Amino acid sequence: MKLYCLSGHPTLPCNVLKFKSTTIMLDCGLDTTSVLNFLPLPLVHSPRLSKLPGWVSKDGTINLEKELKECAGRVFVDSQPEFCLPERELLDLSTIDVILISNYHCMMALPYITEHTGFTGTVYATEPTLQIGRLLMEELVNFMERVPKAQSATCWKNKEIQRMLPGPLKDAVEVWTWKRCYSMQEVNSALSKVQLVGYSQKVELFGAVQISPLSSGYSLGSSNWIIQSHHEKVSYVSGSSLLTTHPQPMDQSSLKNSDVLILTGLTQMPTANPDGMLGEFCSNLAMTIRAGGNVLVPCYSSGVIYDLLECLYQFIESANLGTTPFYFISPVANSSLEFSQIFAEWLCHNKQTKVYLPEPPFPHAELIQTNKLKHYPSIHGDFSSEFRQPCVVFTGHPSLRFGDVVHFMELWGKSSLNTIIFTEPDFSYLDALAPYQPLAMKCVYCPIDTRLNFHQVSKLLKEVQPLHVVCPEQYTQPPLSQSHRSDLMLELQPPPMPYRRCSVLNLPFRRRYERVYILPELANSLVPSEIKPGTSVATVSAVLHSKDNKHTLQSVPKPPPAPPTKKRKRVIEEPPVVLAPKPLLSGAVPLEAFLATLQKHGISEVKVEETADGHILHLQAEDTLIQLEEDGTHIVCDNNEPLRTTLRDLVLRFLQKL
Amino acid sequence: MPEIKVTPLGAGQDVGRSCILVSIGGKNIMLDCGMHMGYNDDRRFPDFSYITQNGRLTEFLDCVIISHFHLDHCGALPYMSEMVGYDGPIYMTHPTKAICPILLEDFRKITVDKKGETNFFTSQMIKDCMKKVIPLNLHQTVQVDDELEIKAYYAGHVLGAAMVHIKVGSESVVYTGDYNMTPDRHLGAAWIDKCRPDILISESTYATTIRDSKRCRERDFLKKVHESIERGGKVLIPVFALGRAQELCILLETFWERMNLKAPIYFSTGLTEKANHYYKLFITWTNQKIRKTFVQRNMFEFKHIKAFDRSYADNPGPMVVFATPGMLHAGQSLQIFKKWAGNEKNMVIMPGYCVQGTIGHKILNGQRKLEMEGRATVRKLSFTFTLTFFLLCNLDVKLQVEYMSFSAHADAKGIMQLIRMAEPRNMLLVHGEAVKMEFLKGKIEQEFSINCYMPANGETTTVTTNPSVPVDISLNLLKREMALGGPLPDPKKPRTMHGTLIMKENSLKLVSSEQALKELGLNEHQLRFTCRVQLQDPHSDPDTLHRIYTHLKSVLKGYTIQHLPDGTVMVESIVIKVSSSAEDPNTKVLLLSWSYQVTFLRC
């Protein structure tokens, strides 16, 4: 069993597991941090961005002023932003049988894999993962296609040139494999390959392995996966949460008894407490509004935003923000809000109970009804006429490189009354802000990452006791910035097996058993005998049938009666005859009992001679010797077949047959 | 031989009070727990005394599964769990769990508050009963205990209706509840995978009907409604608040929009709005089209359909009224029916099945004169006696009676389609009329060559199953075998595999005999035989041996024959040695030695 690691990003994993002749891709994460190296895509012409100076090397030998621009000491690529894809050279991706998706954030690279590698398999995901994943992809495509950029910069990627560039561009990896965003057509085609599954549903793959998603508690429809056969079990844990937010709680007990547990998607903010961050978020928001400023919240269109809105729903009245408009701007804002209300089965118990009433599970329905929250597909159209300040705007993309957020950065960045509050943990806020420097706007960093922290994960692992743990190498050492914090890493016995991008791990697995089914007819014909108390054995002679990786044992068919032949056939012409072989024997022949048995069968003239290892019995009338020893019996008998058979059967009475 | 037993307590050769007991692999399961619409006495509920004469049911049942929210499938649930007594798990889907208590409460109100019955379950009992419910998701495998697992499939009968697959070890049963194999305007079609259950328990409401296409039925329905409206008549459509009602509302709504009609459409009972809200929140349970477009336009927000008030019934001019309940056995639909029955311009359209004993059933059978229970008058005779008089009045039915089969049950074609999908080994019919079942049973047995049963209430059907025995085979043994024969065994030359099955506690392991000895910590006992054969040969011992070797080599082709340096010849594992007699060097003694395991081949 092997694990191929195609992504180095611990929360946006992409691994391939080869297990019992199946090839299973676990998640399909797209590393979008690469876009931080690019200039933002403004929705309306930005004089500031267009006036940025081009970059020329100090000695003037390299002139890339068309491709690279300088802003506040950092160099950015002036081109359509590109993403860092999962590794595609490590193994032939067309051999992948299935792709298992654990949550909607971990499927963004799907079109690259399913559309351009010859992939012919099936993708498995839950319904919310599919629907919301589709929204996020649609949004991404929309952000890119709305502001087409003709230019595609490639010169800077030249190895020789990249070496000369200032950091962080210089240190960017795999730049040649970076790709532009896919099209909506590719998204639709990729998603048409998705097969929906429900939690705890058991799906058979080729009869060889069974896969099953489990609730992971992180987002709507998010799942961990169990991949198992009758005797081996691999658990794949990705983005899981033990906090009580909106999704169904994490199913921990089903992870028990794993041979291997692959652990990815731990919190990216191990030192930030989500509850504390939420409090800080609210108080900063209120402070800014009271001072007459605007609040900008760059965020994804689904996920934590539901919790933020729920938190604000309770907070608005108490903080006297009843009249402040809240705007949610995204091409998929409406869909995201609507979809969140229809997945009752995937929500936590409290929200489920509301649906039984029937009431919408999320209070943002009420915020919309009372006009406190308004949503728009973009800043164009209705929004521009209805927009009132001061206000709070939720919009994407959290990288600040594309989407409506770019416009608000240009609009509000110059005033210190305004505040930008970062809540998404995926991007470093300093890097995100770099192309907007110098900036007067206040910045607050409240990353909310509800995924498991190191303390929670050690407790979980202690509980479920996997034999081996595999994890990204980042989890086996403390973060670079906090190298003294040994509590911010995984310490396990045996130590976890670390992986990095392009690793190929041999998983420590020894398969020893496989499941076969004994057909009823054969089962009825078996004769068990008790070897020791509670343990019986039966010898089995059967015909093995293997089909679709399922094995069955059938009775041996009776050979058709041989046609009567006059000539004696010579053995050598016949194929070896199928005869049941004699079983192995075990046990010992007790002397006294054996003698008594012989007596009963009319053999009474027995001379017994003791030897070092046992006894020699001399059957005088028959001129036959029987050597009885602890682990063997030797019958020396001349040409007397009937006698030999009798003696054999008498000896066998005392022995166990296997 | 293991057996599966199925006993209907209700719905055996009958429609109403569905309740079926299944015993499988030592587990007892109750499928549905419904009430009968046609009765007001003891026969209303299933006869639970069949399970036990005294005491609670908890220890006799491992779980109860409810297929959908119709009262003939869940109406007796609070009675069973709270009054007879059952504390084990009750499974139903989320929408069923949401809607079922509302219908139960409605039912309770009508029975207790309006009809004045006592000894009936209370609101609190409904609540307590619902606390025992564990929600089921589609396709989720729920482990009831270590051995019993259940899985729900989409049934398409009403919102949240499910079929359920029950499995213990390798034995399994599928119960369909009510289902529909053709998608309609708001629900999708039932689907199940090829799970090959030992028994498929199917409803058979429309066992003998093959309905024409849905489109035709819809066109007919709209035409009839339209004609009646045109001539100024009133149209009554008795429905149940949830289910068909929504489908017909969507149908009329779009028709009204297209034809620009002005006649009002009303929907009785306050439940409607609530009902539509359930449809909105459980939109994932509706059909593909509605799910796809719900963000832009929610199909369950109606423009033309308004809430009904009792006084509207006497308004002049045409109107369409949806009123509950669907079988005209009580409530608002019956009241309106009485008001409108005398006018031949009016029309009643029965869109669903009517149980025997209901007014709906009577008028569908052409009865034109009905005896109705009028208002009861109570007269006090003395302080101790009161007499209740029921005024029986005759009602002449003059209005047009139309029947349109919109209730979402599978027809004969659909039932056959489901059998093809699931490939059961046996078939068992419930929830239908005996005569119709008989016909379908014949058809099933003929077409699929499987046994088909149709037990009456209280009658037990026993099916013997023949499960394979799952065993863990050592991978070495399996691989050795597969390597020898390749993955595809040659049917002409069956090759036999030999091994030892070790049975220890609950585990069954199949290993090679050698490994079995090792695993059990046993020593092998060698049984050998030696035989002396004398022959005359003038050569020296080694020469004799060599001559024997060459001879055997020429005679026994296809066997391994070795001449070993230690002065032995081995034919496979038979050892041959030569020595000469002490007295006569020409008399050679051949020592043949073999072990018990050697199989002699006759030559």
Automatic annotation (TrEMBL), chain A:
UniProt xrefs under InterPro entries: Beta_Casp, Integrator_9su, IntS9-like_C, Metallo-B-lactamas, RibonucZ/Hydroxyglut_hydro
Signal peptide residue numbers: none
Main location: cytoplasm
Domain of life: Eukaryota
GO biological process terms, semicolon-separated: negative regulation of transmembrane receptor protein serine/threonine kinase signaling pathway; regulation of cellular response to growth factor stimulus; RNA polymerase II transcription initiation surveillance; snRNA 3'-end processing
GO CC, one annotated term: integrator complex
Compartment list: Cytoplasm; Nucleus
Keyword Nucleus: yes
Pfam families documented for this protein: Beta-Casp, IntS9_C, Lactamase_B_6
Keywords: Cytoplasm, Nucleus
Keyword Transmembrane helix: no
Residues of the Beta-Casp domain: 305-433
Region Disordered: start-end pairs: 548-569
Matches recorded under Gene3D superfamilies: 3.40.50.10890, Ribonuclease Z/Hydroxyacylglutathione hydrolase-like
Family: Belongs to the metallo-beta-lactamase superfamily. RNA-metabolizing metallo-beta-lactamase-like family. INTS9 subfamily.
Record-given protein name: Integrator complex subunit 9
Organism: Sphaeramia orbicularis
Recorded name of the encoding gene: ints9
Automatic annotation (TrEMBL), chain B:
Annotated ranges, domain Metallo-beta-lactamase: 16-229
Single GO MF descriptor: RNA endonuclease activity
Pfam families: Beta-Casp, IntS11_C, Lactamase_B_6, RMMBL
Keyword hit for Metal-binding: yes
Species this chain originates from: Sphaeramia orbicularis
Protein name: Integrator complex subunit 11
Cofactor requirements of the protein: Zn(2+)
Gene Ontology cellular-component terms listed: cytoplasm; nucleus
Residue ranges annotated for the Beta-Casp domain, each copy included: 245-363
Presence of keyword Cytoplasm: yes
Subcellular compartments: Cytoplasm; Nucleus
The entry's keywords: Cytoplasm, Hydrolase, Metal-binding, Nucleus, Zinc
GO biological process, alphabetically ordered: snRNA processing
Similarity field: Belongs to the metallo-beta-lactamase superfamily. RNA-metabolizing metallo-beta-lactamase-like family. INTS11 subfamily.
Major place of residence: cytoplasm
